[in-house]
Design brief:
The structure is a single chain. The chain is α+β, with helices and mostly antiparallel strands. The protein has helices spanning about 15-30, 45-50, 55-60, 80-90, 95, 135-155, 170-185, 190-200, 215-220, 230-245, 290-295, 310-320, 340-355, 365-375, 385-390, 415-420, and strands spanning about 35, 45, 65-70, 75, 100-110, 125-130, 160-165, 250, 265-270, 280-285, 300-310, 330-335, 360, 380-385, 395-400, 405-410. The strands form 3 sheets. The chain has an 8-stranded mixed β-sheet with strand order 1-5-6-11-10-9-7-8, sandwiched between helices. Strands 13-12-14-15-16 form a 5-stranded mixed β-sheet, sandwiched between helices. Strand 15 and strand 16 form a beta hairpin. Helix 1 (about 15-30) packs antiparallel against helix 6 and helix 6 packs parallel to helix 10 (about 230-245). The longest helix has 20 residues, at about 15-30. It binds one RNA strand through helix 3 and helix 14.
Length: about 425
Amino acid sequence: MIQKPKGTYDVFGEKGKTILYIEELLKALMKQYNYEYFRTPLFEVSELFHRGVGSTTDIVTKETYDFKDRGNRDMTLRPEGTAGITRSFVENKIYGNASQPVKTWYYGPMYRYERPQSGRFREFYQFGVEVFGSDSASIDAEVISIAVNIYRLLGLKGIKVNINSLGDTESRDNYRKALKEYFRPHLNTLCEDCKQRFDKNPLRILDCKIDSNKEIMKQAPTTIDYLNEYSKKHFEDLQKYLKSLNIEFIVNPKIVRGLDYYTHTVFEVEASIKDFGSQNVLCGGGRYNGLIEQIGGPSINGVGFALGLERLLAALESENINLIKDDNLDIYIIPMSENELEKVFSLANHLRLNGFSTDIDYMNRNLKSNFKQADRLKSKFIAIIGEEEIKNNKITIKNNNTKEEYKIDIDKIIDFLDQNCN
RNA sequence: GCGAGUAUGGUGAAGUGGUUAACACGGCGGAUUGUGGUUCCGUUAUGCAAGGGUUCGAUCCCCUUUACUCGCCCCA
């Protein structure tokens, strides 16, 4: 039997309905925030994702799906959304001909060659927003509020917003140096992984699960200690704006995010679900002043976040939130025998084109089984067409709630359903 | 890349070194051949992941492989 590739999943049934619901909610919300839809290719030239991004470069190269196309060009399936949008922003010179800031959103599959585990797949879906061209902390707050409101609208409780500021490039560099100086004499007391991180990505030591309770971690300098005047003001503004939106947040100096293009604001939204482990982080993002330049564009700022669909679904499930409200069928039509199937078939087509969700028996079932089937489909109405109905051009139609049964002219069925369906 | 666990029909699963591998759900048919959701009956193409080994005999014990699940790493 051919199986799906490792780390992928099929969507159907209840899960499909839930996903469609979420997607529609996201779309509507983005309209309300006046964000513009962006779609970029699933694959890009490898250089876009493998460009020099400092100490984490080797990780970026390791976990992508890379391939050569038939023209021997190096291509990579996108592992995240920001790079593609930024590339498009630069390539289309959107900074030149649109009103600023440019507020965008995207949604689609991403690919990372990782070992799958709970809530982690090789093909996974992300929704995200990116805003270009404003340095105002109000935009940072807006972006965070979008994330929070998505979770609120879906009914998730116990959402925790962690924010931090890395400061501008100068602040960040100073901090990184100070952190290394701080840990250097204590390297031996840290776990093996942290010794690696010390060279590769020292900020990540703060995240370590093993060493987190050690005294040395509690005493470690924080990014906030190293903010310069401008950075400090920016961070204070952010907090002011978040308060004005009634968003509760925690200033958590351990939030540093993985990549080193982040500046100023970084944040993560966390679910507080027991036994959820590392899946508890539902989304994350921040400000990336400098990324656009890195990709070859002008000196323009950006801020954004991305959320993973799979973790969102897992969180909804663990909080027992059911988003599927009404997926009832309007009408199920039963032909008494194959002789009436043609009439039933064309009638169903007519009803569907008039906006009624309609289904019929394709299996030549007997009457009893057809009623069972109508029940399974939760049909509001059940209609029967047999010899007698054809002769009189009538249809027998039964309201499945009241159990009342009517015989009406086939030509009048639309009117009937209009009056009785809602 | 490292580590742990699991593998039985359409589904959820029980089980044993020895002739027909429980039980439940679902599906289909039937119990007054144009009215169901309850009940009852029947039925559901030899199905124990694959390969090898131990044994008189393996779904069960051992090895290998594969797949899945869960950790670690990483998480853009």
